[in-house]
Specification:
332 residues; 5-stranded parallel beta sheet; 12 helices; 54% helix; 8% strand
């Protein structure tokens, strides 16, 4: 959005000869977008997993709206830009014809920008109203700034080669589990669950594997799960990571979200990582979204600190549990 605000200011210059009502519309847009820009900055400073799902969707709507608005402004600025060169005696008639056509084009462009500004103002007002209904500012203000780095977040963005004992050994072992089996079983959905106590590096390991192999799949998602997470939040986070940004997602119940997710993954080879599952009941619900009838060599990776949860994730003989152990004396 940072590049949009200067362009809105550019529209107000006298050289574009916009009518007063259009200029008023642009000023209104500029004022509202500045306010939204400030709110987005506050959202961006907070841990993503602590944000309410409605706030996440509102932030996405604002970004999409700003991209569309910038596209409209760019097209207008290009169309009204007069790049004609000084006329010579030989091409004076041609330049005069071009200038007359240009006047018509500018008039048409101004007429179109007037309608576009009116429509965008309506959309901005709707998004602004949702900000009020979702109490974005209150929710953001109510979240205390993080004073420490959440271990899983740090693990997600740490360079793999900085992590002793990960590259070249453990990740290869997990990838072997994901690919093992005969020609029939490898086509089915396969689940690998990595289990081990906290701070062993489970998140780093599965993120390493995820980054290495996700290019071979039609779609992929990596979703961290908190200790008190509910199935609805897990489903929404997966859909968001798969690129489904729909403002009504938070209004759906678990059954409707499962249907949405299954529709999204239908006839696709997918890779999904669900990181740090604590609760067996949570997995039983989440697992309903991933039917075993998928025969596109899809893969699902989970991590947990609890052995019983990992075993439940891999209840089928086609699935595998990877027991993560502390580093050996040579690696530590």
């Amino acid at each position: 959005m940072g590049s949009l605000l200067p362009k809105l200011a550019e529209l107000l210059k006298d050289e574009y000869k916009l009518k007063k009502n259009i200029k008023d519309g642009v000023r209104s847009l500029e004022k509202e977008m500045k306010s939204m820009h400030a709110a987005l900055h506050k959202v961006a400073e907070l841990p993503w997993d602590q944000l309410d799902d409605q706030v996440k969707l509102w932030a996405w709507e604002v970004r999409e709206l700003s991209f569309g608005m910038e596209d409209v402004v760019d097209k207008f600025l290009v169309r009204v830009d007069d790049d004609s060169e000084p006329a010579t005696k030989s091409n004076r008639l041609k330049q005069l014809t071009k200038k007359m056509a240009g006047l018509f084009t500018k008039g048409k462009a101004c007429h179109q920008i007037a309608y576009a500004i009116k429509d965008i103002n309506k959309q901005v007002q709707e998004v602004s109203n949702r900000r009020g209904r979702y109490t974005v500012d209150t929710i953001v203000a109510g979240i205390a700034p993080a004073t420490t780095i959440e271990p899983r977040l740090k693990a997600l963005y740490t360079e793999v080669m900085q992590l002793v004992g990960i590259a070249g050994k453990r990740d290869q072992e997990v990838m072997n589990l994901l690919s093992e089996g005969d020609s029939v079983s490898t086509k089915k959905l396969k689940i690998v669950s990595v289990v081990g106590f906290g701070r062993l590096g489970k998140t780093t390991l599965v993120k390493t594997v995820y980054d290495k192999i996700k290019g071979g799949f039609d779609c992929s998602a990596f979703v961290p799960v908190s200790q008190n997470a509910d199935a609805k939040k897990v489903f929404i986070d997966i859909l968001l990571d798969l690129g489904m940004y729909e403002s009504h997602l938070t209004m759906l119940d678990e059954k409707q979200l499962i249907n949405k997710l299954q529709e999204r993954l239908e006839n696709k080879r997918y890779l999904i990582v669900i990181d740090d599952i604590w609760d067996e009941k949570l997995w039983e619900i989440v697992n309903l979204a991933f039917p075993s009838s998928n025969n596109f060599e899809s893969r699902l990776i989970t991590t947990s600190r609890i052995v019983s949860v990992s075993k439940l994730c891999c209840s089928s003989t086609d699935h595998s549990v990877y027991q993560m152990k502390p580093l050996s004396a040579d690696d530590s």
